[in-house]
Amino acid sequence: MQTHGHWINGREVAAERMIPVINPSDGGVMAQIARGGTAEIDAAVRAAQAALDGPWGRLSATERGRLLGRLAALILRDAEALAQAESQDVGKPIRQARADATACARYFEFYGGSADKMHGDTIPYADGMTVMTLWEPHGVTGHIVPWNYPMQIVGRSVGAALAMGNACVLKPAEDASLSSLMLARLAAEAGFPEGVWNVVTGLGEEAGAALTAHPGIAHVSFTGSPEVGTLVQSAAAKHTIPVTLELGGKSPQIVFQDADLDTAAATVMNGIIQNAGQTCSAGSRVLIQAPVFDRLVADLSARFGRLEAGPAERDLDLGPVVNADQQRRVKSFLQAARADGLSFAGQGRIASNAPEGGFYVPPTLLADVAPDHRLAQEEVFGPVLTAIRFSDEAEALAIANGTPFGLVAGVWTADIGRAMRLSRGIRAGQVFINNYGAGGGVELPFGGVKRSGHGREKGFAALAGFASLKTIAIRHG
Ligand code: NAD
């Protein structure tokens, strides 16, 4: 069985304590990863600081961009191996893992191209003076990543941080660390100096907490649950450093009676079953205007009935969820729905030959759910779609905004005026009109409001989050 150490200062560091890596498709142990803590985080932060004080800190933005581009090419070269590892580790159908590997490469391409394009300004100020601004890296940045899209989330946060000249310490999720370690090796092959990209694997309350508490960390980018996000922000506040929080969602897809219902149905379904619903931006609520409610629910119900969940390598509609806890969590939501008498309008099946030990849950459509019901308010993080009826635009907007979250929304209508009114009225980081982009869009700024977090990743806008702006005022007469 393969064992994986940490990656610190350009080399693998063996560990005494290990964590078993479970394959969610069958529940078996497939590898071991190192269980790091304070000492390993400290070594990684020191290595990153030494890189900043050494050649990495002196590289030009163009040279940094070139390294990022080289890494993108290596990711594409090894895309199949990365996809296979991610598919087994997370339980994703291989097709989805391949798309993640390509998206990961695209982040490094995009941020490679951006590295030398963050220009400062000159500011008209006073006679005899010139004032300019410069973007500077924060220093050592910490990156805490969840298990649902490790390659994509590493790409978007480490890619932007390196483009701006930071050096990184990455703590992947204990359930899915393999691709982060593979990417660190590829970064070394691409020619990044040692210490620029460090990976410490381990548990959140050990390695993750040690990272957020370390005085040498200048910025933390956290993607994960709102509960842990709150802990991370509190830890960062103790040493007054900025954080970017990308947290959960309960994103609405709002379908009006004048929409193209066939396209809406297909997209709404994909938006909840992708990655077995374990997508922060999953469209987990579908709000349907009353006159077309029954018709759209019938269409979705037929689609759900054809879905099949099975082992990642069989590449079915969906794989298992990531672990036994997540399986219990989703099942407990479904039990609550049954106990409360909600209508199970459509349900897919688990493949007959799916291994007993795998963490499967049936994809489920619940219809006519009250907007304030638990199933319409809380993030399930599984393949469970909640259909809610509304009568008019004002009610749709109130329901859409009526949860603690604000990450993404979809609006389906042929009326451009209504689409624009809702785009302005919905409190979310992204609004899609007549399409929906759960998890996609390297170029599109992404992030939440309310309990979904703050700060932006993806796109050019992310670069400002990984840098600080210095103003230089010169009196020259
Ligand atoms: P999680 O919060 O349990 O874990 C996320 C990461 O935080 C892991 O690496 C974990 O080890 C670490 N962690 C746990 N406790 C910690 C602590 N005390 N200090 C520091 N780090 C700690 O989340 P999860 O279960 O891995 O992921 C699911 C959640 O992530 C969902 O709520 C989902 O919506 C959210 N998510 C958000 C986005 C986004 O971009 N907005 C993307 C993916 C997932």
Molecular structure report:
This protein has two domains: 2-247 and 453-474, Aldehyde Dehydrogenase, Chain A, domain 1; 252-442, Aldehyde Dehydrogenase, Chain A, domain 2 (3-Layer(aba) Sandwich). It is built from 16 helices and 23 strands. It has helices at 38-53, 55-58, 61-77, 79-90, 94-114, 150-163, 178-190, 204-213, 226-238, 261-273, 290-305, 324-339, 374-377, 393-400, 416-425, 462-465; strands spanning 2-4, 6-8, 11-13, 18-22, 29-34, 122-123, 129-137, 140-144, 167-171, 197-199, 219-223, 243-246, 252-255, 285-289, 308-309, 343-347, 349-350, 364-367, 384-390, 408-412, 430-433, 453-454, 467-475. The strands form six sheets. It has a seven-stranded mixed β-sheet, sandwiched between helices. The chain has a six-stranded mixed β-sheet with strand order 10-9-8-11-12-22, with helices on both faces. Helix 1 (38-53) packs parallel to helix 8 (204-213), helix 3 (61-77) packs antiparallel against helix 5 (94-114) and helix 10 crosses helix 11. Bound molecules: nicotinamide-adenine-dinucleotide.
Explain briefly what this protein structure is.
The protein has 16 helices and 23 strands.
Blueprint (SSEs and pairs):
Layout (H helix, E strand, L loop, with lengths): L1 E3 L1 E3 L2 E3 L4 E5 L6 E6 L3 H16 L1 H4 L2 H17 L1 H12 L3 H21 L7 E2 L5 E9 L2 E5 L5 H14 L3 E5 L6 H13 L6 E3 L4 H10 L5 E5 L2 H13 L4 E4 L5 E4 L5 H13 L11 E5 H16 L2 E2 L14 H16 L3 E5 L1 E2 L13 E4 L6 H4 L6 E7 L2 H8 L7 E5 L3 H10 L4 E4 L19 E2 L7 H4 L1 E9 L2
Parallel strand pairs: 1-5, 8-9, 8-11, 9-10, 11-12, 13-14, 13-20, 14-19, 15-17, 18-19, 20-21
Antiparallel strand pairs: 2-3, 4-5, 6-7, 7-23, 12-22, 16-18
Helix pairs in contact: 1-8, 3-5, 3-7, 4-5, 4-7, 5-6, 10-11
The chain binds nicotinamide-adenine-dinucleotide (NAD).
Nicotinamide-adenine-dinucleotide binds next to helix 8 and helix 9.
